[in-house]
Design goal:
There is one protein chain. The protein is of the alpha+beta class and 662 residues long. The chain folds into 5 domains: 149 residues, no CATH class; 115 residues, Chitinase A, domain 3; 105 residues, Chitinase A, domain 3, CATH 3.10.50.40; 91 residues, no CATH class; 96 residues, Roll (Chitinase A, domain 3), CATH 3.10.50. Strands 16, 17, 18, 19 and 20 form a 5-stranded antiparallel sheet that branches. A 4-stranded antiparallel sheet has the order 6-3-8-7, with helices on both faces. It has a 3-stranded antiparallel sheet with strand order 2-1-22. A hairpin with a 2-residue loop joins strand 10 and strand 11. Helix 4 crosses helix 20 and helix 9 packs antiparallel against helix 10. The longest helix is centred in the last third of the chain and has 30 residues. The N terminus is likely disordered.
Length: 662
């Protein structure tokens, strides 16, 4: 039940953001409940969202809804008087919902839209690129950063003068995959920086941007990422592959193969291809020729994949295949010779088709930082952010290396009390920052103190900017304020209703029994048939005749089962119960009178029905109708509760304002 309540609330949340507020310059009070004034706009807002059928506003529906709304407000008032809004569980639950509701307001819509459109446009193209990496930590000192930059620029100059990119990558790149290496006694050939094909979200955002901004054949300026500086050489750009499914045949070339061995493998690949072109089944040829034993028995079929999941030779060949069931000519790679059959393809689709996936990918990708940066800049401008960096620099002297072991004491900054920055109506002191440092210290690699302090100060400022904007949401966005209030009231209503109605009706066995005894005649069985159905999985007349005689003599069901069913066979099942009309088609068709009914038979089954008694209408026992009786008891408790609340709390409807609603 709680899950349905939560789902309902989030449906309201979405509609709230779309509809906005009904607030107007003139917003008279339409209802007073126990001292609380409810405005016309607030009432209309809730009415419109719950009017899911889109019915035209009319006096009758408004009055009916007003009656329900009064009950709602009375219940919330009772929950407040009971102190449910002060419990830790309530406060924590509401805070959790509010945090989720605030998320759409704590983004930069314009930047997000730009990033989504950029991502979709990039998704329409696959890129093949090589890179050369010179590592430098993102928190490296200016001197180390400059040294890495000079090093990578020197390599770029050599490439532009004509030296081979792959050769330099194999020699100088800090990406070990660029060079040949031995791992666990296994020789692995280096890729010379070749990363194969990729598309949007496959690489870190700075690298992706550098690649998409570089023309084929060109080498980028150094691109900085968290890993260091990259030189990127784009070797191919092509329309997006999308996702494909293929079948393949692989003929491996042994690691120690001679030229003759390689030529033999090539000839075998050509032989397999010729058979396919002659009309032989690809699946059978794959099973016969392919060295990929994991797929050969399945016709060579591979799982669906995109451009970044296969070697570049594979992707390039598939990209040139236009029609489903096309088969490639044999082509080679470092793995051997391949033949590929295109089985299916899924295009990338429209922007709208991709929007949800793009949004999810955006939140998980480092490009989300751009959206946050745009939001932070807007917050700073809106609330006149100002800072004094000299107050930050003072921490260079009081923060020691102990902070990298999680042992720095805030008392070391006891003499620092100046204002570091202001935002709106708030100011943040050096002591606030000192407490932030102490709270967020942990064991980490030592680094330059000034760089560490600068980084932590930026994080501190960003956190406080977001907190400040979050604190202003209720005043800036009336629809958000009303939505949070609805969640608050909804949680209170749920908790108190559970106490007063739902759980009470289930747990209060004495009350439930008393309600049942007072309303027994509302729970009547219609006329029923006490009948026994004998189902035989046989048409053997010997067995059926034996059973008929036994039933006629009045043998018990258990005795009959023991007599008919042997250890090796079980041909009889028996079901005796009381049936109403509609419970079973066979029961509906027979005459409702005692005795044996006409048998029914199929080619391998026989059914006998014995009517034991025609049962007259009677009152249902409590355990026979507990579900519906409990529901009715809940309705009874609800009506009594509302009656008590209306007697306890004053309320007044401004009918003049209600009548003004068109």
């Amino acid at each position: 039940m709680k899950n349905r309540f939560v789902s309902f609330l989030f449906t309201l949340a979405l509609s709230m953001i779309v509809l906005g507020s009904f607030a107007q310059e003139s917003d008279p009070v339409i209802l007073k409940v126990a001292g609380e004034n409810i405005s016309k706009s607030e009432f209309l807002n809730v009415y419109q969202k719950n009017n899911v059928n889109g019915e035209v506003l009319d006096r009758k529906s408004l009055e009916e809804y007003m009656d329900l709304y009064i009950n709602f407000r009375l219940k919330v008032k009772a929950a407040e008087d009971q102190g449910l809004d002060t419990t830790k569980s309530f406060i924590d639950e509401l805070a959790g919902y509010r945090k989720q509701l605030a998320q759409p307001y704590l983004i930069d819509d314009e930047m997000n839209k730009s990033l989504l459109e950029e991502a979709y446009n990039r998704k329409k193209e696959d890129i093949r690129a090589s890179h050369l990496l010179i590592k430098v930590d993102r928190n490296a000192s200016p001197a180390d950063t400059l040294a890495a930059y000079k090093r990578v620029m020197a390599l770029r100059k050599r490439i532009l003068k004509g030296e081979d990119f792959g050769t330099l990558a194999a020699e100088y790149s800090d990406d070990l995959s660029a060079r040949d290496r031995n791992v666990e006694n296994r020789n692995i050939k280096g890729n010379k920086g070749d990363l194969g094909y990729f598309t949007v979200f496959d690489m870190v955002y700075p690298f992706e941007t550098g690649a998409y901004n570089t023309k084929p054949g060109e080498v980028s300026m150094p691109v900085r990422s968290d890993f260091g500086y990259h030189l990127i050489k784009v070797t191919d750009r092509k329309p997006a592959l999308g996702r494909v499914q293929v079948a393949h045949i692989l003929l491996r070339i042994p690691a120690d193969a001679t030229a003759a061995d390689s030529a033999a493998v090539e000839a075998k690949a050509q032989e397999a291809y010729n058979k396919i072109m002659a009309g032989e089944d690809f699946n059978r040829i794959a099973e016969q020729y392919s060295d990929d034993k994991s797929t050969a028995s399945k016709g060579g079929i591979l799982p669906w994949f995109g451009a970044n999941k296969m070697i570049p030779e594979f992707i390039k060949e598939i990209s040139g295949m236009k029609n489903i069931n096309d088969v490639s000519k044999p082509f080679s790679s470092s793995f051997g010779w391949h033949i590929v059959k295109l089985l299916d393809r899924k295009e990338i689709g429209t922007y709208e088709d991709n929007l949800n996936d793009l949004k999810q990918s955006l939140t998980r990708n480092d490009r989300a930082k751009k959206s946050e940066e745009a939001l932070l800049n807007r917050i700073k401008n809106e609330y006149n952010f100002s800072q004094n960096l000299k107050t930050r620099d003072a921490f260079y002297k009081v923060v020691t290396d102990t902070i990298f072991a999680g042992g720095w004491n805030v008392a070391q900054a006891a003499g620092l009390n100046k204002t570091m920055f202001t935002l709106g109506r708030r100011s943040y002191s050096q002591q606030d920052f000192a407490n932030y440092l102490a709270k967020n210290q942990r064991k980490r690699t030592k680094e330059d103190i000034s760089l560490f302090v600068n980084s932590m100060f930026n994080s501190f400022v960003n956190e406080k900017c977001l907190e400040y904007e979050d604190s202003q949401l209720e005043s800036k966005y009336p629809e958000f304020r009303m939505l949070v209030k609805e969640y608050r009231d909804g949680i209170l209503l749920f908790e108190l209703t559970d106490q007063k109605i739902w759980s009470k009706a289930v747990k209060d066995s004495t009350g439930l029994e008393a309600y049942y005894n007072a309303n027994k005649k509302n729970y009547m069985w219609d006329q029923r048939l006490d009948a026994t159905i004998y189902s035989f999985n046989t048409t053997s007349e010997d067995i059926l005749s034996k059973a008929r005689k036994a039933i006629k003599k009045g043998i018990s069901d258990n005795e009959l089962l023991e007599m008919i069913n042997t250890d090796s066979t079980s041909v009889l099942s028996i079901d005796r119960r009381k049936y109403q009309k509609g419970d079973d088609p066979m029961i509906d068709e027979i005459d409702w009178k005692t005795g044996m009914a006409t048998e029914t038979a199929t080619t391998d089954k026989v059914t006998m029905i014995k009517v034991n008694e025609v049962v007259k209408p009677e009152i249902k026992k409590l355990n026979e109708a507990r579900g519906i009786i409990t529901a009715d008891y809940q309705n009874f408790l609800e009506k009594q509760w509302i009656k008590d609340l209306r007697a306890k709390y004053p309320f007044e409807v401004n009918n003049e304002v209600l009548s003004s609603i068109k």
